[in-house]
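Any chance you could type out some protein's one-letter sequence along with its C-alpha cells so I can compare the two?
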Amino acid sequence: MTYLDDLAQLLRDCVEPALVPADADDLFRFYAVLLRAKGSDVTADDVHDAWSAWMQQRDPAHPSIVPFEDLTEEVRLSDEPYVEAIRAVALRLGLSPRPAPKP
C-alpha cells in the first residue's frame, strides 16, 4: 500500500457503502490525488473529471462522460458525497490547497 492507498481508504470510509461502485480502488486513488492537490477547495466539477477519467477505462461510451456543465442536475448531485468526503478528510488532515507556483 502507498500513501495514496491510505488516503483513498480514508475517503472511502467517509462515503456510504451503497454509493461506492464495484472495483472502485482506482477511483478512490484519483480522489486521493484531488485531496492532495485541491484539499478543501475541491469542487464537484473536479470530482466529475476524476470519475470521467476512471469511467473512460471501464465504459468509454458511458453517457455521463461529458463536461460537468452538460450533466443533468440529478447526475451532478451524485458527485456531492465524494466532494463532501474529500473536504472532510482534507479538514481532518489539515490539507489545504497548494499555493500556485510563482511565475
